[in-house]
Amino acid sequence: MREKIKIGKIISQLFLLFYSIVSIYPLFWLLLFSLKNNNEIFGGNIAGLPKHWKFENYISAFEQAKVLDYLGNSVLVTSITILIVIILSSTAAFALERMIWRGQKTMMKVILIGMMVPIHATLLPLFMVLKNLHLLNTYWGLIIPYVAFGIPMGIYITTSFLSSIPRELEEAAAIDGCGIFKIFAVIILPLVKPALATISIFTYISSWNELMFAVTFISKQEYKTLTVGIMSMVGAYTTKWGEIGAGLVIATIPTIFIYILLSEQVQKSLVTGAVKG
């Protein structure tokens, strides 16, 4: 029996090792790709180690392609979007889940309908609205749509998490003299950190990698985000693919860092949902 258990553990560990290699290899390949020139990429050495390590691809990406400026724009837009989504989602979820008022369930259904609206179906109406409000070629021209599409998912995740928290905690705080704002800030917010971490990751991914709105609503160079900046590195006649690879590596690093930073909180939120179910 013990031998069978050991064999099973070995097989599962080998499978996990294989899965890890398959998952990590694309990142390793992208790193190698960013250190090659066009001759190597199109000359049959697409998957091997670079014959000449072109670290100047990163220098060119920063200096000539202005990837650092695009990176700063993406960080600014994404950070403000995440902050606003977290604030609005947590407060709205608290009102929808913990307070009792007329039209509560109807309002929840209306908000969740937003999850069913395809983002590309709103491209033309949003363009006209932003044009009339003179928000094209501004940071807010991207932040407002990103927030609008991030709130329904944020409210759904937060309300699901709030439903697993005992109401007795809030009742005890109210007996001790806490007002509604203090209950929310002192009792609720610390408990819903895993849900807020999950919202942050989902909002980050959708905002950081978004291209359609960024291309349509932004045409001025100083407001372009990283996805648009990398796309603009493709030339009409020649394209330095190694520099594009360097830009993609730069764009990927923050994603990996944020997921490592918040992955523990996301796991807690998933475990809580599983226990509740």
Task: Explain the overall architecture.
The protein is mainly alpha-helical and 277 residues long. The chain has a single domain, classed as MetI-like fold (Orthogonal Bundle). The C terminus is likely disordered.
Short account of what is shown:
The protein has helices at residues 2-33, 38-41, 56-63, 67-98, 104-113, 123-132, 140-162, 168-175, 180-191, 193-208, 212-217, 226-231, 241-276. With 277 residues, it is mainly alpha-helical.
Defining key terms:
about 280 residues; disordered C terminus
In terms of topology, how is this protein built?
Blueprint: H1 2-33, H2 38-41, H3 56-63, H4 67-98, H5 104-113, H6 123-132, H7 140-162, H8 168-175, H9 180-191, H10 193-208, H11 212-217, H12 226-231, H13 241-276
What is the multimeric organization of the chains shown? single chain
Order of helices and strands: HHHHHHHHHHHHH
Tell me the major beta sheet. Answer: none
**Gross CATH architecture:** Orthogonal Bundle
Task: Please identify the top-level CATH class.
Answer: Mainly Alpha
